[in-house]
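Quick illustration for those who missed Monday's session on complexes.
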Amino acid sequence: MSDEKATPLARRLIRQIEATGPIDVATFMTLCLADRRHGYYTGGDPLGAAGDFVTAPEISQIFGELIGAALAQAWIEMGRPRPFAMIELGPGRGTLLGDALRATRTLPGFHEALTLHLVESSPALRAAQARAVGERAVSWHTRLDEVPTGPPCFVLANEFLDALPVRQFVRDTRGWRERRVGLDAHGDLAFVAGAPMMRAALPDAPADVTMLEIAPAREAAVREIALRLKHTGGSMLVIDYGALDLDGSDSLQAVRAHRAIDPLAAPGRADLTSHVAFRPLLQAITETGLHAFGPLPQGDFLRRLGIELRLRHLLAGADAEMVTSVRAGVDRLIDETAMGMLFKVIAASDAATPPAGFTADEEWT
Ligand code: SAH
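Prediction with S-adenosyl-L-homocysteine bound:
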């Protein structure tokens, strides 16, 4: 076994696979990210320049401020209900939340009405979230179904769904087979193909597509939120990297210290995500009877929420160095060659009125 593969989780997986055979990619992903002892998110704080990856709210405070404005608009459009809940899934360091709270401070009655529920599995990130919200009362939950159902709510998930597990299927001359993690001739972790499976068990794919990824856990999460919103009223905003439909390539990716690495190289020590396919999520929303909107490229969404205006306000009176660095952050969020096009935004609402940032003709039907 090479040194790189010698993480504690790799050794455990190898023993398990030797004993009981290959595991599917979803199980591998779940263990890598969420294993109680060796999981990536169980271990520490992976975010920021010194960590493994950087997310939009960590790049610019304007991101969270604009989401705060969208949250406030949702509250106003609902007739300013009290109480009103915000549920954030996977809040990371709580940066977005802190910025959203600061941006909505002056809206009369809003902070008094707001209750905060954070769904977070990482103890280290819960601690960071507590620091980010300061004095405010917050409830933490390990799973969405632990959040009490009550007042109307706004549900937010930025770069959360990409961490939920995917299953992969590959097509060869004998048909479709599930891609699994097994062992190679040296006893190292390697991708292997399972037994041929029944065609009917998979979604349709064009004849030239040889790789399919499905994410039942992502669909289930979105369906669960939609059913909750149907009951309580409110809206949801999901932001993640991906596309309406995936392009048929292997999108599983591991990142460590801001570099892409082999997904099997450092189990439990690297972030592991895959591209989000939005079509099944939009379908899951509309199946519950809710209105779904998008997907909209992140750059368009942020421009519509007024990112340029907000930037001008923020930079009024700033020195040249500050102007350059803040402008660079905003450009990274909206530029087509950076995050502006790769990241997409979808929304769901119990009301037919399009949520902030969307137009009526962007409703998914
Ligand atoms: N939204 C944040 C962080 C994104 S990273 C931001 O934009 O900066 C993914 C987040 O989801 C982390 O907070 C991670 O701990 C959390 N997470 C990942 N899988 C989870 C799961 N299955 N249950 C709860 N939280 C999870």
